[in-house]
Amino acid sequence: MNISAVIIAGNEEEKIADAIRSVEWVDEVIVIDSESTDRTRAIAEEMGAFVITRPWPGFSAQKQFGVEAASFDWVLSLDADERISPGLRDEIFSIKKVPVSLRADGYRIPRLSYYMGRPIWHCGWYPDWQLRLFDRRKGRWKDVLVHESFEMNGGAKIEKLTREITHFTSENARHHHEMIGKRYAPLAARQMFADGRRTTPFGIAAAGPTAFFSTYVLKLGFLDGLAGFCIAQFAAHHAFLKHLCLWEMQNADSQRPRT
């Protein structure tokens, strides 16, 4: 069972080395670089990774490209801000020893995110199951704009592992705010629009408070202290902004001047 680790990256010079180091035990490391303007590519190459540079086509398309570029059928997929924990590495080693007839086709892995310097166990952030170790012949990345996931073919056998991928998410409050405003909310709105979903002024007004209550109260975010409160506030901002962006999209035609 040979494994290719595929890491997508773009201007991640501060994180790419740790990501590669966490998978240096696999048979091949490939970095798909989205035309970085910093030292991401140089650092990855210095660490022995095979780097492919290509324009950014979106999360799913970039990850699928990496899957297809891999030399081996078993793929371990990571983002540059994620790490394979030592415990997970050992668990994967144990899978390599399992006879092929008893091995699953894909494995869901819990992801533990760190925010404001602490692990987040609530807010709906854990266990955040991710299907990241898989036989590429048995599925492909789902073609969506945001919250991409690898989808196994019908009949594929999927099992769960117990040790985590560690995820070092937003660097600070400004970075979190920028990610929501520049990436996640607009992409979520576009996906909602493509799926035929529409919103209303009431939907825009209710989205934020609903998201805050769900994250902070129902999902026990208050147990994560100040970090949980901030996550709930940003969840509210994201919900409000994506509904507002959706509202602008669905009303774009009516707002254009008629000739």
What does this structure look like?
By secondary structure, the chain is α/β, with parallel strands linked by helices. It has two domains: 3-168, Spore Coat Polysaccharide Biosynthesis Protein SpsA, Chain A (Alpha-Beta Complex); 173-255, no CATH class. The protein is built from eight helices and 13 strands. The strands form three sheets. It has a seven-stranded mixed sheet with strand order 3-2-1-4-9-6-12, with helices on both faces. Strand 1 (3-9), helix 1 and strand 2 (28-33) form a beta-alpha-beta unit. Helix 5 runs parallel beside helix 7 and helix 6 (201-218) packs antiparallel against helix 7 (225-250). The chain is globular and about 55 Å long. The N and C termini lie far apart (64 Å). The mean pLDDT is 95.
List the helices and strands and how they pair.
Elements: E1 3-9, H1 16-21, E2 28-33, H2 40-46, E3 50-53, H3 59-69, E4 74-79, E5 82-84, H4 86-96, E6 106-109, E7 111-115, E8 118-119, E9 130-135, E10 139-141, E11 150-152, E12 158-160, E13 165-168, H5 173-194, H6 201-218, H7 225-250, H8 252-255
Parallel strand pairs: 1-2, 1-4, 2-3, 6-12, 7-13
Antiparallel strand pairs: 4-9, 5-13, 6-9, 7-8, 10-11
